[in-house]
Design brief:
Elements (H helix, E strand, L loop, with lengths): L4 H14 L6 E2 H6 L4 H7 L3 E2 L18 H11 L3 H17 L14 H11 L4 H13 L1 H14 L8 H17 L3 H7 L2 H18 L4 H8 L22 E4 L10 E4 L4 E4 L11 E4 L2 H13 L18 H9 L5 H14 L5 H8 L3 H8 L8
Parallel strand pairs: 1-2, 3-4
Antiparallel strand pairs: 4-5, 5-6
Length: about 375
Amino acid sequence: MVRDKYEDIKKRHIRLLTSGKKHTISQAIVDKYKWTVDQYKAIEPYIVNNNPNCFKTMNITQKRFTKKEAFDLLEKHVENETTLKNYFSRVNTFLKLMNIDNDIFSDIFIDTHAMIKTITDTYKDPTAYFGFILFILSKSEKLLSIASQHFKINREKDTKDDIFDVLKTKFNYFKNKRTITDLHKRRNDLEYERVYNQIFNIESDISKADYGSTRHLVALMYTHALYDKDNIIHINPRNYFRKVRLITSDEELNDIDNFYNTKTGRLILNEYKTASIYKPYDVIFTPSVQKVINDSIKYKKRSYLIEKDTGGVMARNSLSELVKRIFDGYTIDTIRKSIESYEINVKKTNRDHLAFVSRHTIITQEISYLAQTTTMS
């Protein structure tokens, strides 16, 4: 009688598992063969699913925050698919780093200091990992509550430190440590005074030649709209203006979206890069800026502050590319850093205020953004 080699393989797996010589069997191997009912019962306790997006624990309680809850939370708050995949990967990374094999994500906070040490010992630049933890804590009151309870149990008696503040301090420290290596390059690249003056000259030229157009509006938003009636900066821009809804009453506001009230000149930015850590922008444009915006709306009826020529919200990178074309190749990032450097080195703006309108720390200004006061080549 011809032996069934597949049956022999299955029996060998069973024998190794039940004798203790082998401790697990992957789902991929299980799926490869046809098992009898009795065979499957024998191997079932040893099956391990290596798919990082599968969940071992589905039971939700108030005292623990599972991997599935973390994935659901991220799917709700992260739109970019690449970022979402990276964040899913970081959930799995933290579970693996902290030897959590029960899918209870909140268990990584049982010993916060051990978690911090593990991250800093494992990664040369752990900035992104601290940033991820701050993000997910900021999006879940439940997780933050559980993590805070763990932290209070283990923190030193003489301190009133908060877990979020401790992690934020670590995040800022490593972010600044990383960016200091770029300081020399930034010093050479950012001729801040020339860039600053040039973008305002460009806005002036467009205002005369193409008043109220989309190009003019974009140029305005990255120059004069950044300042209040006293010529004090109130926004240091990123790609903030892509999806700003036009409204006529503050009753239409919510805590999620970005808005511009055409009646009052009030701009509210709830959604921006560091919104999970800092407060929303809430500013009033000057009468001259309001006039340009209102005139542009008369020329082109629309629902958003800046729209495509054919109408509707611009694609994620379209506004960035448009800014680059309008400002002779300068990116939003270059404009932002040049404005900040100019404010500090030329206008002598208070650094606390500038950090607030930039939505980052003073140390970030010092290391990541500011060029030296000497002329750069």
